[in-house]
Amino acid sequence: MSETGKAKVIFQPSGRRGEVDKGINIVEASRQLGVDIETLCGEKKVCGKCKVRVEEGSFEKYGVVSGQDHVSPWQKEEEKFISPEQRASGYRLGCVAQVTGDLLLFVPEESRAGKQVVSKAARDIEIEWDPAVKLYTVTVTPPTFEDPLGDFERMTQALEKDHGLKNLSIDWYTLRKLPGTIREGEWTLTAAVWDEKEIIKLWPGKVEDYYGIGIDVGTTTIAAYLCNMRTMQVLETVSMMNPQCKYGEDVMARITFHMQNPGGLERMSNDLWEGLNDLVKKACEATHPPTRKQKDENGKSIKDEDGEFVIVESPEEGKTYLRLEPSDIVDVTLGGNTAMHHIMLKLDPQYVGLAPFPPVVHRSLDIRARDLGLNINPSSNVFIMPNEAGFVGADNVCVLISEKPYRSEELQLIIDIGTNGELVLGNKDKLISSSCATGPALEGAQLAFGMRAAPGAIERIKIDPETHDVDYKVIGREAWLKYSKPEEMKTKGICGSGILDVLAELYRSGVVAKSGRFSKDQKSNRFRKNPDNPRQKEFVIAWADETSIGKDVVITQKDIRQIQLAKGALYTGCKLMMRRMGVDKVDSIKIAGAFGTHVNREKALIMGLFPDCEVEKVLSVGNAAGDGARVALLDRKMRADANWVARNVEYIELTVEEDFEKQFMESMQIPHMTDEFPHLKGLVADEILHQK
Amino acid sequence: MSETGKAKVIFQPSGRRGEVDKGINIVEASRQLGVDIETLCGEKKVCGKCKVRVEEGSFEKYGVVSGQDHVSPWQKEEEKFISPEQRASGYRLGCVAQVTGDLLLFVPEESRAGKQVVSKAARDIEIEWDPAVKLYTVTVTPPTFEDPLGDFERMTQALEKDHGLKNLSIDWYTLRKLPGTIREGEWTLTAAVWDEKEIIKLWPGKVEDYYGIGIDVGTTTIAAYLCNMRTMQVLETVSMMNPQCKYGEDVMARITFHMQNPGGLERMSNDLWEGLNDLVKKACEATHPPTRKQKDENGKSIKDEDGEFVIVESPEEGKTYLRLEPSDIVDVTLGGNTAMHHIMLKLDPQYVGLAPFPPVVHRSLDIRARDLGLNINPSSNVFIMPNEAGFVGADNVCVLISEKPYRSEELQLIIDIGTNGELVLGNKDKLISSSCATGPALEGAQLAFGMRAAPGAIERIKIDPETHDVDYKVIGREAWLKYSKPEEMKTKGICGSGILDVLAELYRSGVVAKSGRFSKDQKSNRFRKNPDNPRQKEFVIAWADETSIGKDVVITQKDIRQIQLAKGALYTGCKLMMRRMGVDKVDSIKIAGAFGTHVNREKALIMGLFPDCEVEKVLSVGNAAGDGARVALLDRKMRADANWVARNVEYIELTVEEDFEKQFMESMQIPHMTDEFPHLKGLVADEILHQK
Question: ∠ at Cα B31 (B26, B32), nearest 5°?
C-alpha cells in the first residue's frame, strides 16, 4: 500500500476521528485529531509511555478494509516496552508505528495524558502598590473655532495639567477608540497609562477598578492569578497543563522536538498561546454568574428550536459579578524557565540546550499582546520576566523577587523543584544559582507506574516494618486502603508527591537498604522478580484487585535508581553550591513549586534530597514563581529588581564543577553520612540508619 | 423578482463577471468585481460620471434570462445626466440603478476610471544626512563557560562599546532572528537601529547600504520615493492612483462614504494599504533586471509543461542590480491631508469634517509596519507626519519642512493645489495656513468633458482672437491638431492642467467676458446652445471627428462657473490670509503639487488664481509634499521640525472670516481689478482687460 495520500484514523475510547497524511506516526496523528497521548521523552522511543493497541479485529464495523497491515513494521525499540503477549494483542509504540492506511486504535488508560490536579493557589504576600499600568481620569472642554485642538492633544494637555504626565504617546489601536470614547463620555474619560509613557486603553467617564494577570508558565503546569490592580486582591487563581506536554515532558525533549521538526517551534509556541487564551478566558468567566439549564413549570429542561438546551444565568442573591472579559485585562506578567521562555517567544532554544548554554536574551521584554496573539486589551504590553543563565530563567527570577533573598541577612537555600530543578543560595551579600536535571522522576514520570497528580494516584503510604504490609491513600479518595474495600481504591499509579513517601517508607521499614538496593531480609510476598523480566526485582505496592488498570502497581529496582538519580542531582547541586559559597550549613531552606507544597519535609530529609537543616527551618513557599509574576504585575519597581537580580546572581554550571561525578555518586545513597545530617537523628531509628 | 439572493453580473468591455447580492447598486457591483467606474461625487447622484448602459439585448447569448427588467426603476435624479435618447438605449446612473437580477452591462469609455499619467518625479533638494534608522556593525567573541552571556546582551555591550549606543531595546520580531544571524555571520553582524533606541533589523556580517521609502498620499495620486539611505540617492520614483478614488473623488465624499457605510472606513483604509504594498513592490521590482520570454534557436518563445512562457532575466551588460525586496525597506515616512491621514489610520474622520473641525491627533505617530499591514521589514516603524489643523494636514507639513518658509526672511505664499487646496503664508516671524475647497474642477472633474491627466486629454490650447478657431494638443501625442489629421487626435476630454489654459484662451480671445459669461461677440459656429438643453450654452473645443468618444468635446457655461468657483475659492483664501497677516503683497509664490508642475503661471495669473506677483517670482516646487516625506526619511531632526511647525502655524478657518462671501463673489471675476494686478499688464492686452 502506498504511503502517500490520506488515511482515516479513529481513536478509542474517545471516538475522535479524522483523516491524516499517511506516513506520520500514531502520536502525531493523535495530536492532529486532538487526542492526548503521553510522550514523556519527546518521541525519542525511550519512555514507552505512548503504547497503543491497533484494533484490527474491530475494523469491519467501521466500514474500512480489514485484515491489512495498516501500520509500519515492528521495530526493535518496541521490544523494551511491549511484551510478546502485548505484541500479539496488537500493542505498538505510538512514536514508532506509522500510519500506512485506515486505522482503529485503542489508547489504554495508562497512555492517556490525563487531566492533572494542580494546586497552585495564591499566597498572601506583601506587595507595594506601584503597578506599571495606572488609571487617570480627566475632563476636557470641547473644541471650538477659537480652540480647535485635536482630541489627543486635548486629552494629553489635561493629563499633564491634572496628573503631571508629560510626553505621553498612545498606541495606534487605542488612538482609534479616542474620538468615540471622548464624546461618549461627554468629554470626561479615563486613560490607562503604561509606565508613565503610553496610553494603552480608554474608557468613557470615570473608571477606578482595573484588572491584570500574573502567569507562571511551568514546564508541566501553568498557573494564572487574576488581580484587581487597584486593590491588589487576587480574584481568581486558575491553572492548566502546559499544552506543550504532548511534545515532550521535559525541556530537553521539547528542544529536541524543535530541532527535529521544521515548524515545531511555532507549533509549540502557538499551542501555548492558545492555551493561555483559554486560561485567561477561564479566569474571566469565573467572574460571571453561574449558568443553568432553563426549566419549565414541570422542572423539565427547555430546548430551543435547534434542539439545544436553553442556558440562563443563575446569579446568587445579593452577590454582584464583575463580568470581566479578556479585553478588560490591561497588564500581564509572564515567567518561565529559559527553555519555556524561548519556546514561548519563538526564540531558537537550541543554543541554550548546548554548552556553554547561552540564552538568546537575558533582559526583560515588553511585547505587545496582539503581537503575541494573546487576546487581552490589544494595546497592552506583556511583561516577560528576565532570564538568569542556562536553564535558570525568568521563573527563578520570579522566585527571587517574591522571596527577596537579596535583601536577607539569613543564608537561604531556595529550591524550586519542577521538571527541572533550580537552586539559589545566598543572602544580601552574594547570590549563586544553578540548575540540576532532576528529571521528571520526582514528579512520577519515567517510573513503571509513575503518573501525574491525578485521581487514582498513590500520594501517601505506610509500610509495616514487621510484616512489610502496605497501607496507602490515593488522590480523589479520602479513606486509606485499610478502611476501604480493595475495589474502591481504583489505584492507577504513583504520583510525584507520593514517590518520596514510598521510598522513605521502603527504607524506614527495611525493604530497601541504604544503597538503594532491596535488602536481603524481605518479610512478605510483595517482593518478587518481575514475571516478564526475572532480572528485574520489584515490590508490589497495590495488588491488581485494588486498581482500575487490572494489574499490580509495583516499584522496581530501576524505579528506585531513577529517584536516587533525581535526588542525587538535587543534593549534589546543593552541596556544590555550598562549597562554592564556602559554607557548610544554611540558615533556612525554602521549597518552591507544587512539589514543595505536597512533600513531607521530614521524609525529604530522610531521603537526603537537600542538606541537613532544622526541620522547622524547612519551609514550603508554594508557587513562588507565580507569586513573583504577581509582584511584578503590581509593583513596577520589582521589574527593575528582576532585571538587576537576573544579572547579579552568579550562575554555576554544576556539571563542569570539579569532582561533580564523584559527588553525584555519593549523593545517590540513602541517607548520607550521619555527621552530615545531625538533624536526622530523631527522624530515623539508629538501627536503620546504620544498617548495611 | 425578489431582491434577495445573488445575481450574475457581467461588465463589458472588460469582461469581468461574478455574482453579487441583489439590491446593491451597479457602482458597488463594479467595485466588488474589480471594475473601476468613475464616481467623483461619492455616489451622491450629482456628478453623473457613473453612466452605464444596461445591455438587455445581448442577454441571451450569455445564457441568462432576457427581456426582464433586472435593475431598479428609473429615478428623477438620472434625468439631469441622461438624455431621453440615452435613456432609450439603456443608459442608467450606476449609483442609482440597483441590481435586481442577472445583468450584462457596458461601461462607456468616459465612465471608466482610467490609468492616470502621473508626474511626481523627485527634485534635487538639500537634505542633511541624519536618518532615524542607522546601521552599526559589531564583532563579538563567542560565549564560553567563563562568559556564557546571552546573544542580545553580547551584541548590545559591543554596540555600546564601539558606537556609544546605550539602553538599546529590540523588537521581538528582530530578536527572533538574532541567534541565527549572529552565528551565520560568525559573530559579526550589522544592526539597524531606530532613533538610537531600538534594533529593528539584523544582517549577518557587515552591511553598508540600506533602503527607505518616502510616500505622499494624495487624495487622488500617491507617489513614493525609494531611497538609498546611506547615499540619500533616489533610486526609483513610482506612483499610482489612490485606490480610494472609487469611493469618492474628494475628501468630503470619502468621509460621507464612511458615515453611510458600516465598515466603510476599514475598507477604504485596507484598500489603501493594499495599494501601498503594490507600490512598494513596484519600486523594489524596478531594481531587478528586466525579464523576457526565453527563445529557442529559431527565435520562438519556449513554453513550459503547463503551456506557460518561460521567463528569464535579461540584465543589461555591465549593469548591476540591487534586487531589493519589500522586506529590505527599513524605514517609511508618510504624509497626506488630515482626511487621508485619518482614513489611512482608521481614525474616525467625521469630526474633522464637521465644525470646528478638530482632528483626532496632531502629533506625528510611529506605528509598526506590521500593525499597519505594510509588508516591509516587519519591525520597522512607519513615521506618520503630524497634522496642522482642519484639513491642513501632514501633507502640508511635508511641504513646510521641504520649503522651510519658517527659516526665510522673504514673505512666501505657498499654494498646494490638489483636490483640496492648502495655503501657507509667512516667513520666519509668523506662518498662517488655511485650506480652501477648490474642489476637483481644477483637476478636470465635475466638468462636462473633464477627465484625469490620461492619454487623449487636452492639455494645451490656442484660440485665434480673429476667427475663434481652436488648436490644441492632447496627452500622449506630440503634434498639435494643426499638424495632425483630425482622427489622429483621439481626444477624450480636458484634463486639469488644460482647463486653465482653455479658460485663459477663451478669455484672451474674447469668447468669454470678464464676468465669466460667453461674450455677445462670437466669431464661429463653435458657440452654440446645447442640443439637449437649449438653456445651456457651450463652446466646442474639439469636433466629434477628432475624438475617440464620437461626440463634440465642449466647455459649457456651467463648466466655466465651476472653474470660477475653484479659482475664486483659491484667490479668496490668499486674499484673506494676506489681510490677516496685514500685507498687501507677497515676495514670492510657490506652487506645489502636480498642478503646479503643469500649469502655465502666466495663464494662472491672467485667470486670477492667486495674488499679483512678478512672474519670475512665481515658482513651481513640484511635489513638495513628497519631497518633505523624503526629508523626514533622511533627516530625523526634520521630524522634530515637523512637529514643531505643525503646532506653530496659525490655522485660519476661511469660511468664518468676516465678509468671506463678499470676497468670494468678487474673486470669481476674471481677472480682478487691474490695480490689484500690476504685473498682469504685460500679459493681457489692455482692450481685453477693460472690456465689459
Answer: 95
